[in-house]
Amino acid sequence: MKVIQKKICLLGEFSVGKTSLIRRFVEERFDENYLSTIGVHMSRKRLERAEYALDFFIWDLAGGEDFKVVGANYLRGSAGAIIVCDLTRKETLTALPYYAGQIQSLNPQAALVFVANKADLVMERTVAHDAIIEAITAFGNTYLLTSAKTGQHVNEAFAALADQMEK
Fold it and tell me: How many CB atoms lie within 10 A of CB 120?
């Protein structure tokens, strides 16, 4: 079977759950202990597609000011990104267009999937559907509600990215 390799990135502000989403996808587990990513961490996961295998090389990039210093260097060669906000922190929405713009400035054809993470924290949610749509409208108007803790729509987010890369 043919194997295709693609570099993808997870982007978003500090503490939105990027590392937890990757852990859930790659290792099928969730860890309550929060450790901030410093720089970049890489993982690999194979997705079986209809006619080939797709190896995702997943770059987990630090968010916030750390990203602004070295982000473009890490994004080079990326075929796509999952861009993450935190449903319990409204301020993470404003960064979605920034991260999308950064990757598309280096690769205008990059596939983008937006996710609103921490859907399991229903009582703590401060971000409304309309606010998410407003934040991402320049790049599309679809996103997935995910929970790294429960696994809700995590695999679907990575599968959606793979589907977009096939177009």
Answer: 16
